Automatic annotation (TrEMBL), chain A:
Purpose: Involved in the recovery of exogenous heme iron. Extracts iron from heme while preserving the protoporphyrin ring intact.
Enzymatic reactions: heme b + 2 H(+) = protoporphyrin IX + Fe(2+)
Record flagged with keyword Transmembrane: no
Protein name as annotated: Deferrochelatase
Protein encoded by which gene: efeB
Alphabetized UniProt keyword annotations: Heme, Iron, Lyase, Metal-binding, Oxidoreductase, Peroxidase, Signal
PROSITE patterns from the UniProt entry: DYP_PEROXIDASE, TAT
MF terms in GO: ferrochelatase activity; heme binding; metal ion binding; peroxidase activity
The species this protein was found in: Solicola gregarius
Domain of life of the native organism: Bacteria
Known EC number: 1.11.1.-
TrEMBL record, chain B:
Localization (cell): Cell envelope
Cellular component terms per the entry's GO annotation: cell envelope
Family: Belongs to the EfeM/EfeO family.
Superkingdom of this protein's organism: Bacteria
Ranges where the Imelysin-like domain occurs: 146-376
Pfam family of the protein (one): Peptidase_M75
Keywords: Signal
Residues spanning the signal sequence: 1-26
Protein name: PbrT family lead (Pb2+) uptake porter
InterPro entries for this protein: EfeM/EfeO_iron_uptake, Imelysin-like, Imelysin-like_EfeO/Algp7, Imelysin_sf, Iron_uptake_EfeM/EfeO
Amino acid sequence: MGASDDDREGGAVAPTGIRRRTLFGAAGAGALAVGAGAGYLARGSADAAEHPVADPDAVPVDFAGEHQAGVTTPAQDRLHFAAFDVITDSRDDLVSLLQDWTDAARDMTAGNEVGKFGAVAGPPVVPPEDTGEALGLPASQLTLTIGFGRTLFAKDGKDRFGLADRRPEQLVDLPHFSGDRLEPAICGGDIAIQACANDPQVAVHAIRNLARIAFGRASVRYSQLGFGRTSSTSEAQVTPRNLFGFKDGTANIKLEDTDTVEDFVWARSGDGPTWMDGGTYLVTRKIAMRIETWDRESLEGQQGIIGRAKGSGGPMSGGDEFEPLDFAANSRDGEPMIGEQSHVRLAHPDFNGGAKLLRRGYNFVDGSDQLGRLAAGLFFICYQRDPREQFVRIQNNLAGLTADLMNEYIVHIGSGIFACPPGVGSTGYWGESLFT
Amino acid sequence: MTPPHVRATLGAAACLPLLLGAVACATDSEVEGSGGENGAIDVTASDDSCSLSRTDLDAGPNTFNVTNDGSRVTEFYVYAEGDRIMGEVENIGPGLSRKLVVDLPADGYEGACKPGMVGDGIRADIDVSGEPAKDLSDSAELKQAADSYERYVQSQTGALVEKTDDFVAAVKAGDVDKAKALFPVARTYWERIEPVAEKFGDLDPAVDEREPDVEPGSEFTGYHRIEKQLWVAGDTKGMGPIADQLQTDIDEIVRLAAESPLTALELAQGSKNLLDEVATGKITGEEDEFSHTDLWDFKANIEGSKAAIAAIRPVLEEQDPDLVALLDERTAALETELNQYQNADGTWKSYDELSKAQIKRLSDAVAAVSEPISQVAGVVSESV
Ligand SMILES: [Cu+2]
């Protein structure tokens, strides 16, 4: 951003700048201006007047659509992911929860406050409907994406909501992968909600308000904050880096490649139950990284483990970031330049029957552990048409100490699989097709 | 009996009756046939027009649903005389809808759409009329509620004084076992009516402060000081003066409570505060950290909260029967969850015997009641 920012900071008196002060004056005199407008107060409408299409963060991502937003949407920079346990056995309560959630999600993704009166316009003697920490922030490309876990369909052999026969075959119980050290408290969940935004405060606000709406009907099982998207889902995005310092997501499915998206991401008619047509399957893995050990690995070693150059992101077989991987290329001593146990090779479609995933994971740092080591890693998130053919197949190829060399530096500690229903229109609610 | 003005206010004030009045709002707008869900005003902005589904509005918060059917980014303003901005919503991209809530006193206003977000915009007159919101004043129903709760408080304070006397006597007699048995019992009566005590400044901390909260330079006294001696030291050494002071403080609180009973609004807040006590202190096991008798307090807080709700119940039933039904259902679920930890002889399981999963279920059940209970004060304030 340039001159317009400076103008604003410097207090240049543009006509709209006066208007802004007038607004605050009016509010101080007892008028209440809330709702969408409040979302932009701090950002200065002087900008807006000069540049009719303002900051992209000010233009919300459409909530309504054939598919849910937050899957192929260009990956935002921040994540707040939450898994919920439904604590009622009433189908009606579950449906009403999904309806209330959808209403709030529509409000929040549009940059609006939750509820009729939002954060400050309500009656003084009751708690505000919206918690308020996103006031003054734009929509920040917030997307909210919901998925249903296996236990929503049946838990401990109990069909709580009459959904047992509607569970898609694709929603498998993930097998144990060699090397898994899963902690039950951060696995599973009846419902998952992924909140992605370019501002962490907006993502946190979203999950906080949804959790609040859920009290009495669903309870947060665990939640995870993430930063620094670790993949690109659009050609327009620069490939980011993970906490190993490597570019991550170079070969990811990009939304511009619509054929690949259709083939690998969205469930089609005939794939499974019709309620999932247009939906997708979400797999999450919380992957702890042994950061300090990794940092003591030589550059050569790191690059060999990954199979790509640390600087450019290009394959070890040569070329820049987007150069195709040449698995046949051998070095002078006859060894493959992209090692047989390298991460890119084992994860590549060529070695997985052509299977691809749409990844949109995030880095996380949960502070440091009691030994002073960074409690950090990757909250891996992927979307796919059929986890059996995609995530499970690829992960089986990667898992085990004789497989991916990277396994020495990572450990999978959390896991989840969810069926994400198709998108909602401007009316209707998340997962409506499951209940009708 | 409902005073006649209760209904009259609801009808006239339309969107004024606050949060839970949203229901009443929808009904009003249907009656008026003025369109827009929940009484909202639909604003449709194009590149060269700005239409409002209605322009005669009732005083109070009004919701504008602004839809941009044009091709340029637009914004919508509500101006008072002299272009004083009452509310605005900016950056509405083509095809998008945004919401604006503005509290409008009776007066003349202008709504303006600004395609391209420049210029004076395309304007329409808006007329706002009607009564401002009424102040909360005493109604017969609320008076009855306060009286009813006052009777409950009296029944509890009687037992509180009696059981505390017994407890104090056991402590002073050095009867550790008897004092330990009486400790949670005396506190039951205290915990049921704690919102009453909270009004009286230093007395509440003197009686019920926990050790980590004691301010530097002041003394650790009250129930928890004696609790520590009983459970940690296993004796009553030095507790005589503390016990005497506890009895004096309790007597004083009971006397003050009788002098200034809670108003209906205060007891609505009190019912919430009791559950907040559970959610912050009890659920963590901090309250009775030495004796682990937290479940006794837990139960008492819930009973006290229920009693407060019971007193306001006629008002709630009148104003928001759905809220009452939800409270009943969730309170029953909370009690079922809690009661499984009660022993056959009426005593309660030691809190440190509960698993993390059991505590999480209790916490969920408390939160489930707490959210709707936080709406009760709004309903009470609305019922005038
Ligand atoms: Cu990978």
